[in-house]
Amino acid sequence: MRYWILDRDETPQGLPLLELVRRVRTLVPDESLPWHVTKARGYGERVVELDEILDREMEVLVDPEEIERLAAGREEWFYDFSVQTPDRKLILGLHDSTALFVEGDDEVARSVAATFARFQAAKPGG
User: Fold this and answer.
1) How far apart are CA 116 and CA 100, in angstroms?
2) pLDDT tens-digit profile of 13-63?
3) Residue ranges covered by each domain of the chain
């Protein structure tokens, strides 16, 4: 199940992606394993580099510390971003500069989304 998170923040990115990443990191059994980035569009040298790699590859493995640094949305930020946890049980990210999302087992995804003030379940097929 996918949940949209509609909270905003004061970063140039406009969305609290760092908070979402940190919340999900607490659920990952082995914090040292890299995450699977599948979409990265936005502003900044590393974000652009990831986007260029993803033009050629299906995913890029990125350390969770780097995910957090990029998710802060201050020096570099995302317009579109999608990443899977190492075990691929959760997908999270940012959609078209409009909302954050978390997707996975309904109970887990809902518990993550519920830590934010504004969230809603995605409609089927959306």
Assistant:
1) 10
2) 999 999 999 999 999 988 889 999 999 999 999 999 999 999 999 999 999
3) 2-121
